[in-house]
UniProtKB/TrEMBL annotation:
Protein name in UniProt: GNAT superfamily N-acetyltransferase
Family matches, as PANTHER family: N-ACETYLTRANSFERASE
GO molecular function: acyltransferase activity, transferring groups other than amino-acyl groups
PROSITE patterns: GNAT
Pfam families to which the protein is assigned, alphabetical: Acetyltransf_1 (PF00583)
InterPro entries tied to this protein: Acyl_CoA_acyltransferase (IPR016181), GNAT_dom (IPR000182)
Top-level lineage group: Bacteria
Originating species: Longispora fulva
Residue ranges occupied by any N-acetyltransferase domain in the UniProt entry: 1-158, 155-301
Gene3D superfamilies attached to this UniProt entry: 3.40.630.30
Length: 301
């Protein structure tokens, strides 16, 4: 049975996401906050698939948050491995696609694991990998990363505990649109960001770092963490264009990962566009190992 998700499902939804996509670090409270903080204009629907009273699949479908492209929507579905091959994922996807079509979307995108069976399944539903964009998910044990590179004397590192949210928002707004993603990117409004990012109970402020050049914020890295399972996810790292190539991304990430290790994190995940050469260079240097590849698939509606 496919139905709308409700608050009582959040424990099972979180467990399911943790099993299928362990890098999507989210506690139950984090998942609840993600649902509640979603801007109305995204018209997001969360769906679940239930078999004999057990929640075995989950999907979300709504307008894309981070691109100004008109009519862009995101659709995602996941099914527990032991329940695959029974049409549950297809039923979720069909429902999700119908929803985004109904709210006026003209393009739907999703991210499929780079596995032949999954890509064939997406193709059967009209989703093609034609754009050729992929995201690499990778993981490192933060206790084993290299020591910090020398930090220029005029640069000072502070954690998110010591900065105003506006500082982080402005860094994200200035650097986020430079992420190679296959679609144009644009910042979401500050009020929405406050709810979704700053208000996320899983935001690990002590393990998120801003680099200040004098008093000017110039680079940052943002970590979400589930300390109960020792996992973290670097949601974003950015350096202002004026300060790129100076080692600042390395410096803020090393600091954040050392802080994460001290807090008990043993698996620090991140995801990068496969063409993001500078970020991949930083992460390779840190010792990240590939954990999964996700291919962007898209269809017209
Ligand atoms: C990715 C980003 C954070 C890097 O910031 P930075 O402060 O310039 O990074 P660093 O100076 O610490 O390191 C950059 C590394 O990339 C390497 N590099 C730069 N351009 C490169 C290229 N085209 N190909 C390969 N390597 C490249 C540099 O040589 C350096 O590696 P090295 O120190 O081993 O020589 C910055 O480019 C940025 O803000 N981009 C937009 C936002 C983004 O894409 N964030 C990542 C989202 S997942």
């Amino acid at each position: 049975m496919i139905r709308e998700a409700r608050d009582a499902d959040l424990v099972e939804i979180t467990a399911l996401r943790n099993e299928v996509m362990p890098y999507l670090v989210s506690s139950v409270e984090g998942t609840r906050a993600a649902v509640n903080a979603m801007p109305e204009w995204a018209k997001l629907r969360w769906l679940v698939a239930e078999v004999d009273g057990r929640l075995v699949g989950w999907a979300r479908a709504g307008l894309s948050l981070f691109t100004p492209e008109p009519g862009a929507a995101d659709v995602g579905a996941a099914v527990l491995p032991e329940y695959r091959g029974r049409g549950i994922g297809s039923a979720l996807l069909v429902e999700g696609v119908a929803h985004v079509k109904q709210i006026g979307a003209v393009t739907a995108r999703g991210r499929a694991f780079d596995e032949p069976g999954i890509l064939r399944w997406a193709e059967r539903h009209g989703f093609a990998a034609g754009a050729g964009h992929a995201a690499q998910i990778s993981v490192v044990d933060p206790r084993a990363i290299p020591g910090a590179p020398a930090c220029p004397g005029h640069i000072r590192l502070v954690s998110f505990d010591e900065v105003d949210p506006r500082v982080v928002y402005d860094l994200e707004a200035a650097t986020g649109p430079d992420i190679p993603a296959g679609v144009p990117l644009a910042p979401i409004p500050y009020e929405d960001w406050l709810g979704m990012t700053w208000g996320n109970p899983d935001l690990f402020r002590g393990g998120s770092v801003v680099a200040l050049d004098g008093d000017v914020p110039v680079a940052y890295t943002l970590t979400v963490a589930d300390l109960s399972t020792g996992r973290s996810w670097t949601n974003m790292t950015g350096t202002l264009r004026s300060h790129r190539g100076l080692g600042l991304a390395k410096i803020v990430k090393v600091e954040a990962l050392h802080r994460s290790a001290r807090a008990g994190i043993t698996r620090a995940y991140t995801g990068n566009d496969a063409t993001n050469a500078p970020m991949l260079a930083v992460n390779d240097w840190l010792g990240y190992q590939r954990a999964a590849t996700q291919v962007t698939v898209a269809r017209k509606l």
